[in-house]
Structure prediction request, 142 residues.
Amino acid sequence: MSDERKSPHASELPVTTVQLNHTVVYARDRRLSAEFLAAILGLEVGAPFGPFLPVDLGNGVTLDYYELADEPIQSQHYAFLVPEARFDTMIARLEAVGVTYYADPSHTEPGKINGLFGGRGAYFDDPDGHNMEIMTRPYVRR
Prediction:
């Protein structure tokens, strides 16, 4: 007798903890902004989902880019924990497209990276002025 039961899809499994599933990122041009971030992080832009253009971060969370072409966009901060082995490649991608990175969130140390919590990190602006951060070690919270 063959077992033809399918294993449940992740969306069918019960949720036992609170998890971030997605967040909306406002952009003047959703495609430009989504493709910019995806290119820097080495990710892909997903298929449109209604008015949203998702970038899947690979941990069950998507950044859903939403276009606000005629309204002001309030700068937000997005921090990405990235593998140490991919950090230098991300910095090289920023340099290749002429985007300045900084060691600090106030952008006063251009072209430098930080060594917070025993890792490496950098900040940069996306096309809409969102303050993006890449870091190889999470912040220690006590």
